[in-house]
Structure prediction request, 318 residues.
Amino acid sequence: MKLINYIYLAIATIIWAFAPALVKLSLNDIDPYYFLFIRFLIVSLLCLPYLILVILKKKFSSYDFKNIIIYSLSGQVSLLLYFKGLDLTTSTDTIILSLIGPLLTIAAGHYFFYEKLNFNKKVGITLSFIGALLVVIEPLISSTNGTAKDRLSGNLLVFCSTIIGTFWVVYSKFLFGKNSNKFISFSKRIGLKLHKKKYEDVDFNIFSFYIAFLFMLPFYVYNFNFYNELTLNLSSTSLGVILYMAVFSSIIAYILYIKAQKALEVTEVSLLAYISPIFSLPASFLILNEVPTLSAFMGLFIIFSGILIAEFSKNKAK
Prediction:
């Protein structure tokens, strides 16, 4: 049974691996806000029959909608930070910084769900975090591939989106049936009163697209004339990337990821994310002709060293 969930997770990871280079390419003639608006508009139209079916068949309380909104804001809408960061920095930096996400998720799984985390894993996570920080400040060391100020801001936005994404993973596990007294306590401290109820994963994922679309709507209304003119000048490449992100990266990848996450441990979900650079870094080179700077390579080396230390300890324990 676990094998099919690993397959789901691998497919989602590979789909997302090509996203940074493709999105960066399309951001040459479209800004990240409008990109996300069109993406979520397409997804919302495609998923409308399912949404109507869910609303007619199921009753949702005010608690349910509160959880849907928090789930959406921490998952889908947090992409705004990621896309804006990608617009300011390089796709290579974005890919490297995304590697810290799985290790932060492993640490969160240990803290909130008591998943095992030994000394070597703690060392590996700390080392990878240091490597990520080196990548974040790398523009201050090397001003190539764009201005240092813009790239630093972009790296910080991507890093923040990774942290929010970690919260989203933990929150998803809680909503879809994994209890955690620590998470309930943490939520109360930040002003959230969680309603402990097991939800359907696909339902929440579909709802999140509509919340994300509504969140992006004010950006479109505010820039209505500019965006309408921009639409007429969109290249076929940008349109193709938007469709890829709407159909494959949003609907297919998210549903497969949520289904796998529901069945697997937080730690297991995080591990397959490490295969992403195998596809994403070559894609950035072939599509954008991007090569990591020496400082970025150092950060990548430190991150991977931390990953190897963490994962070697796991294999040795077995």
